Amino acid sequence: MSLPKAIRDVVAVFERLPGIGPKSATRLAFYLLNVPDIFCEEFSDAIGVLKKNIKICKKCFSVADTDLCKVCADKSRNEREICVVDKAIDMLAIERMGVFKGVYHVLGGVINPLEHVGPEDIKIFELLERVRNLETLDKIEVLIATSLTMEGEATALYIKNRIEKLDIEDDMVKITRIGSGLPVGADLEYADEATLSRAMNGRKNM
After folding, report:
1. What's the helix, strand, coil split of the chain in %, to 5?
2. Does the 5-53 domain belong in CATH 3.40.190.10?
3. DSSP secondary-structure letter at 106?
4. Concatenated DSSP letters for 26-57?
5. φ, ψ of residue 180 in degrees (nearest 5)
6. Domain 56-205, what fold?
7. How does DSSP classify residue 110?
8. pLDDT tens across 23-72, in order?
9. Rounded to whole angstroms, how far apart are CA atoms 3 and 157?
10. Which residue positions in the chain have pLDDT lower than 50?
């Protein structure tokens, strides 16, 4: 049986979303077909303004409503403790724990030669500049919380090597890596709060 073109078009769009296969895409399309028109209109409007209304924080590169995200705008946060994550959603996962009181730096991805993503394609050089600008008498901690995939580990090692080459006294920058609690290959966004808390508390020097 061939579905009507309008449904096939919606299914094709849903299939392009991460984690959505043909069966899930078809179920979602039929769900939208059977809900009230007002829901579809609200859904369409929300998607339509998503990228128009969202800004990128000019300091940490997370998502925000204004030029600075809520974390960067919070003067009580310890700006000398920087947690480096792949994606903004990883930052949200850590924030849900309510125990980390530093700030964040969102790379926007990881180094992945197979996907033609190099250091210049993500926010590594901006991170180095942040660390360089913070150099004073007080120690800085850079907690690298990239995913525990091969690409995430390679990105963490690259960041460590680049920070160590900065013209900063050796004992002024402490570089740590997210610790035990997460399995190898894990993405932070899928970790439960207890597991992620153990990983944060168990961070180790690199």
Report:
1. 50, 15, 35
2. no
3. E
4. HHHHHHHHHS-HHHHHHHHHHHHHHHHH-EE-
5. -65, 160
6. Dna Topoisomerase Vi A Subunit; Chain: A, domain 2 (3.40.1360)
7. -
8. 999 999 999 999 999 999 999 999 888 888 889 999 999 999 999 999 99
9. 50
10. none
